Prior knowledge:
Number of helices: 12
Shape: globular
Structural class: alpha/beta
Order of helices and strands: HHHEEEHEHEHEHEHEHEHEHH
Distance between the termini: 41 Å
Number of domains: 1
Helix content: 40-55%
CATH class: Alpha Beta
Radius of gyration: 18 Å
Amino acid sequence: MKITLQDIIQNKKREIGRKQRRFDKVQGLSTLLHDVRQPYKYPQGTLSSSLNEHRPPNFFSSYIQLAGRRSVHAQMDKPFTSKQNLEDIALIAEIKIASPTSGRLGNLADVKEKVSSYELGGADSLSVVVDKKYFGGSFALLQKVRSFSQLPILSKDFVIDKYQVYEAKFHGADAVLLIAKIVSQDKLKMLVKLVRELEMEPVVEVNSLEELRRVLRVNTRIIAVNARNLDDFSLDLDKACRILKRIPQNMVALAFSGVSSRNEIVKYKDAGAKGVLVGTTLMKSKDPAKVIKELKGL
């Protein structure tokens, strides 16, 4: 059976409703609202607990931009080669258990090993897909990844309600994906504002020039261009690159989907991307660290 964006959104509405009713009965939404407005505390004894006192609101974007600064200094000590160096474009490595286009991609039991391999390969940031029904994720998965790594984490979901933003904060996200296509302009502005108020960073996704024009009117500095059309899940990297070229230079432009080799990263970089997200290719690989190094030319 073919899965549509409308299927995903309708399921998301039901899922949020069930969670809210269950949570209200057990604890009360006011408790959650209080907890998420406190600085996130990493579980004691985990790798990330040392970050409890040193995690700025721009943690995610600072790592994206840091990739470029690292490369400038690194090149001073390296001889010139004809092979294009890709150290100056950040790589966001994704944990995605399944997808509508690729089916099952991984197992929850292997997540810690996968995250370690991402770090070993030189990933600059992480992304966790938290949708359960179609992508096999959850906010519990996000929290688990948070306990394994000090890297900034993007929470990826089909956000249509502020409750999802609170959940992302509660479980340790540093940034939240907001998809322009699935919410009204007023709701998008509200969600961007809420993400900022909770000291996370909004990453707003677009797939058309019209959506880009909308997003340029909201208070976000990180725009992700998805080469995948969510209506039919087709890929169009050329279209994505045309959109990337229209993003102002003072913003952080990211490229999502379609990366299977260095060729796609070079293409995105030449179009102006400061970071690329790689998911399926890494999840399918038995040696993600090696793949990341090959993609970045390390």
